[in-house]
Design brief:
With 165 residues, the protein is mainly alpha-helical. It has 5 helices and no strands. The longest helix has 67 residues, at 98-164. It starts with a helix and ends with a helix.
């Protein structure tokens, strides 16, 4: 997906999540009833932020044009306002601190996922290094065996020539 359509998809996802939360919050029995909308809210915001931070594929004129800059600032402010509104709605419906708990748990899970990915990369690098060491050791052993066989062959040929004289 190209950057502009990604940003539009992120904005649309964010707006639909806000509308979904607003529509479902009054009848929700617990946060799980609106969890899908909350996931979409964070995903939409993430997509918009990625688009805003990554300008590859966008011309310099588009990147620094007044319309582009103004739209980004307005979108960011509107998104921030809507996030605050959703936070208030969730806290009023499910109790003070619920939104902060959601945000904290999300941040914790993102951090755990990053740490798990880093650990997996370290483990893969360790296994790659072990494989390289095993290959080197294998070549060294094969080399030593070839040298021993070569020396043994030379010794046998020398002995055979010595006996024949």
């Amino acid at each position: 997906m190209e950057p502009i359509s990604t940003a539009l998809a992120g904005i649309a996802l964010f707006k639909s999540a806000v509308d979904g939360i607003k529509g479902a919050i009054s009848t929700a029995n617990d946060v799980g009833d609106i969890a899908g909308y909350i996931d979409n809210l964070f995903e939409g915001e993430s997509q918009v932020q990625k688009r805003r931070n990554k300008k590859s594929g966008v011309g310099v004129g588009d990147q620094f044009g007044i319309k582009s800059v103004a739209q980004e600032i307005i979108d960011a402010k509107l998104a921030k306002e809507q996030m605050q509104e959703i936070a208030s709605m969730v806290d009023m419906r499910f109790g003070h601190g619920t939104w902060a708990g959601i945000v904290a748990e999300r941040a914790k899970r993102i951090q755990e996922a990053k740490e798990a990915a880093a650990a997996a990369r370290r483990e893969a690098a360790k296994k790659q290094k072990e494989l390289e060491e095993n290959i080197k050791t294998g070549f060294l052993i094969v080399g030593v065996i070839v040298v021993i066989i070569g020396l043994f062959s030379i010794m046998m040929i020398s002995i055979a020539k010595g006996v024949g004289h």
